[in-house]
Amino acid sequence: MVPPFLVAMAILGHVQAQQRSTLIDPPIREFDQILNHDSDQTGKFSQRYQLVTHYFKSGGPILFVQNAQQEMSPIWTTDLIDYAPQLNATVAILEHRYFGDKSGGSFPRNFNKRSTKNDTSDNSYAPLTLDNVLQDGVDFVNWIKQSIPGAEDSKVIYTGASSYGGFLAVQARMRYPDTFTGAIASSPALMSLGPMPENRLKFAAAGHLSKVYYNQSREAAQKIHENCHDALPDLNICWKPNGTDYRLIYQATVQNYFETSQFNYPFVDRFPTEYPLDDLINKTLPAKTDGEVIRIPLLASSWQQPNKCIDPSNRNITRASSPKVTSPEDYITCSYYAINHRSIPSNNLLPEAYTRTSVDLCKNPEWEASDYNSSNEYFTEKYALSHTNLDSMERLLIVHGEFDPIAAIGAPILTEADSYNHSRVIIVNGTARAEDTFSEAVVPRGVRPGLDQIRDAKLAHLKEWLGVGNQTTPESAAPAFGRLTWMLVAGAAMASYRVV
Ligand SMILES: *[C@@H]1O[C@H](CO)[C@@H](O)[C@H](O)[C@H]1NC(C)=O
Ligand SMILES: *[C@@H]1O[C@H](CO)[C@@H](O)[C@H](O)[C@H]1NC(C)=O
Ligand SMILES: *[C@@H]1O[C@H](CO)[C@@H](O)[C@H](O)[C@H]1NC(C)=O
Ligand SMILES: *[C@@H]1O[C@H](CO)[C@@H](O)[C@H](O)[C@H]1NC(C)=O
Ligand SMILES: *[C@@H]1O[C@H](CO)[C@@H](O)[C@H](O)[C@H]1NC(C)=O
Ligand SMILES: *[C@@H]1O[C@H](CO)[C@@H](O)[C@H](O)[C@H]1NC(C)=O
Ligand SMILES: *[C@@H]1O[C@H](CO)[C@@H](O)[C@H](O)[C@H]1NC(C)=O
Ligand SMILES: *[C@@H]1O[C@H](CO)[C@@H](O)[C@H](O)[C@H]1NC(C)=O
Ligand SMILES: *[C@@H]1O[C@H](CO)[C@@H](O)[C@H](O)[C@H]1NC(C)=O
Ligand SMILES: *[C@@H]1O[C@H](CO)[C@@H](O)[C@H](O)[C@H]1NC(C)=O
C-alpha cells in the first residue's frame, strides 16, 4: 500500500498566522462505534471525529470525509469546508478505525498495537474489515442526522482520498446508495489488485511515472535512468555500509523517485521544498556522476543539507523501506486491499522490478486472507469494479492528479456524458496526489490553475447531485463538461497503459 500521503499538521506551519485565527477547527470528539457491525456482539470503541455545523441550514447536506490509512487530518484542511457555505452543508470527518497518533486514536479498548496474529479477540486486528469500515461511516452519518436539528432528511456525500480512501468512496457509493447520494473518490487505485505476476495492469503506475519524468525533462530523466541501479555508486554514505544498509538505501531511492512526483505539492510536506519534482529535476540536470544524481532524492527525503553524508539510519530513509509488520496499513494490504503499483517494466525510468515474480505486498504471512493470492480479475469481480459497473453508477466523481502514478490504475474508461450525474473521471493537469482535497486555507486560489478549476467543477457536481444544480432546469443548462479542454478526461489518455 502507498504510505500515508500527508503529514497534515506540518502544513499548519505554512498557513499565514492571520489566516490561522479564522480557521474553523472544532474540537476532536469521540463517537461510540460498534466494533463488529455484522454480529450481535455489543463491543464498542471510541472513534474520533470532527464536525462543522457553522454553515448548516435546515435541509442542507452532510459532506462526509472518511479519513483513511493515517491519523485524522484537521477538518479545515479539507476542501469540502470551502463548498459548505454555498451548499448550507455540514461537514464531518471520521478517523478510520485502528488509526491514530500519539494524542489519541480510534482503537478498540484492549487493542494491542503489536499484535501480529489474526484471531477473533478484540486485541487483534480481526475487526478491521472492509465491511466494518464502510458500516462505521453509515452509522456515523445516521447519528449526525439524528443529532442535528434539520438534518433528518439531509442527503449525504461520501468522500475519500488516496488509493485506499478513494476505493472506500467507490465501495460506499456502490454498496450503500440509499445512504450516500453521491461520492467523490480522490486518487483511488481500482485496477491493479493482488500480488500475482499475471496481473496485466501491474506496470501501469510505473509507466505513468516514467512519462511524467520524461515530459518534465528528457535530459534529467535520462540521467536518472542511467544512474539508478542497485550497484550503488559513490554516494558519500556516513559510514562503511553493510548489505542491509545498501538494500535500505536502494529501496529508498526508488521509492523517493516515485513519491517526489506523487507528492509534488506546491507546499512543504514530505519533502523540504515546495514543488519537489521541479526541485529534483533542477538539481539533477547539473549533476555529473552517478553518486551525485542518486544523492538528490535521498537528501530530499531525509531533509539533509546538500553537503551532508547520507545516513542510512535516518528514520526518513528507513521509513521508506523498513520491513515493519505491525501497522494497520499492512493489515489492510494483507487482508483485503493489496494494490500493486510496484512492478516496473524494463526500459522504464527506474530499474526493472517484479516483472516475472509475485510482489511481496503483504509483510506478514499470518495476516494473508485466504484469497490473497488471487488474480486481478478476481478482485475486480469481488469489489464490482468493472468499467461497466462504474459506468452505470450515478453520482460518482473520480479525480486524479496528473503527477500521481496511481492515476494510471485508478481511472476506468467511462462514457463521456454531459450530465453531472453520470459517473466521471477527471485527471487534473499539474496537480499531485489528492491535491484536489486540500482547502483554500492550505493551497490558496491562484497557486495552481488546474486546482481552482477542479474546485469549481466539484461544486457544480455537488450542486447537481443535491438537486440545486442548473442542469436540472433545462433553460439554464450548464456548459458541457466533457468539452472543456483544460482537463484531460481519462479514456483517451489512459488507453495507452492498458496494453502492458
Ligand atoms: C441556503 O439557505 C438559504 C437561506 O436559508 C437559501 O436561501 C438558499 O437557497 C440555500 N442554498 C442552497 C444551495 O440550498
Ligand atoms: C507535460 O509538460 C507540459 C508542459 O510543461 C505540462 O503542461 C503537462 O502537464 C505535462 N504533462 C505531464 C504528464 O507531466
Ligand atoms: C548493518 O549495519 C547497521 C548499522 O551499522 C546495523 O544496525 C546492522 O545490524 C548491520 N546489519 C548486518 C546484517 O550486519
Ligand atoms: C527550476 O528551474 C526553473 C528554470 O530555472 C525555475 O523557473 C524554477 O523556479 C525552478 N524550480 C524550483 C522548484 O526550484
Ligand atoms: C524527517 O522528515 C521530517 C519531515 O517529514 C523533518 O521535519 C525531520 O527533520 C526529518 N528528520 C531527520 C532526522 O532528518
Ligand atoms: C481473520 O479472522 C477472521 C475471523 O476468523 C476472518 O474472517 C478473516 O478473514 C481473517 N483475516 C485474515 C486477514 O485472514
Ligand atoms: C500466497 O503465495 C505465497 C507464495 O506462493 C505463499 O507462500 C503463501 O502461503 C500464499 N498465501 C495464501 C494465503 O495462500
Ligand atoms: C451553472 O452552474 C455552473 C457551475 O456552478 C456556473 O458556472 C454557471 O454559471 C451556471 N449557469 C447558469 C446559467 O446559472
Ligand atoms: C441529478 O441527481 C439529483 C439527485 O437525484 C437530482 O435531484 C437531479 O435532478 C439530477 N439531475 C439531472 C439533470 O437529472
Ligand atoms: C494535460 O496533459 C496532457 C498529457 O500530458 C496533455 O496532452 C494536455 O495537452 C494537457 N492539457 C493542458 C490543457 O495542458
List keywords for this structure.
500 residues, alpha/beta, 2 domains, eight-stranded mixed sheet, two-stranded antiparallel ribbon, 15 helices, globular, disordered N terminus, disordered C terminus, binds 2-acetamido-2-deoxy-beta-D-glucopyranose, Ser_carbopepase_S28_SKS, protease, carboxypeptidase activity, dipeptidyl-peptidase activity
Describe how the helices and strands are arranged.
Layout: H1 8-12, H2 17-20, E1 29-34, E2 44-52, E3 62-66, H3 80-87, E4 90-94, E5 100-101, E6 104-105, H4 130-147, E7 156-161, H5 162-175, E8 182-186, H6 204-216, H7 218-227, H8 243-262, H9 276-284, H10 290-301, H11 315-318, H12 328-335, H13 376-382, H14 387-392, E9 396-401, E10 424-428, H15 449-465
Parallel strand pairs: 3-4, 3-7, 7-8, 8-9, 9-10
Antiparallel strand pairs: 1-2, 2-4, 5-6
The structure holds 2-acetamido-2-deoxy-beta-D-glucopyranose (10 copies).
One 2-acetamido-2-deoxy-beta-D-glucopyranose (NAG) binds near residues 421, 464, 467, 471 and 472.
Keywords: Carboxypeptidase, Glycoprotein, Hydrolase, Protease, Signal
GO molecular function: carboxypeptidase activity; dipeptidyl-peptidase activity; serine-type exopeptidase activity
Protein name: Serine carboxypeptidase S28-domain-containing protein
Q: Mind explaining what this structure looks like?
A:
GO terms for molecular function: carboxypeptidase activity; dipeptidyl-peptidase activity; serine-type exopeptidase activity. It contains 15 helices and 10 strands. The chain has 500 residues and is an alpha/beta fold. The protein has 2 domains: 298 residues, 3-Layer(aba) Sandwich (Rossmann fold), CATH 3.40.50; 152 residues, no CATH class. The longest helix is centred in the middle third of the chain and has 20 residues. The structure holds 2-acetamido-2-deoxy-beta-D-glucopyranose (10 copies). One 2-acetamido-2-deoxy-beta-D-glucopyranose binds next to helix 15. One 2-acetamido-2-deoxy-beta-D-glucopyranose binds next to helix 8.
